[in-house]
Predict the structure.
Amino acid sequence: MQCGWSLLGPLQWLRYINREVKVRAGNDEEHRGWLLTVDPVSASVVLVNFRKGGASVQVVMGHAVEEVEVLKEADDETAERLRTTFLPQRTLSLDP
Amino acid sequence: SVSTSAASGADAEELQKEQDARTVLRESFLRCLLSMTSKKVQFHMHEKVKVEATFGASDIDVLNFQVSDLHTPIGVQKEALIRCQDVISFTFDT
């Protein structure tokens, strides 16, 4: 069943970034975490929960998303942690 | 997968904004997939089936995942493709 989430589009999905959200999905699953991104191709939601020395990542497939509820916004520190979660350890510079 | 543009018929500026948003979202998602390579991932499937496997790759449309050592209820499958339509969610630790 295709729900509204898949049809929202990139500009709407962008508004959910860096928000703590609760995602209801098929199978009566419920996931909570910081929304890192939404894949614009599959509408899949990437949630991050920070832990000591790392993070637990949950990806809910777009086709299974039933409802996304915003709980709160990230502060600057959390937003920065989210931004750097999947960046490579060392960014190669092309400048000489 | 999702339709390529919700803003068909909208003006060029709106379309550009949508494309920029799409780029930001997709890059972040691809980095997430990239960091999953060779990691143990738990897949939650329909009927409350949970399986664990080592993640390999995804195709660009996110229709299939290639995994290794898929622990199924009837044994370990050395190499496998998982249909994304059968997956509700998956989790891994960074």
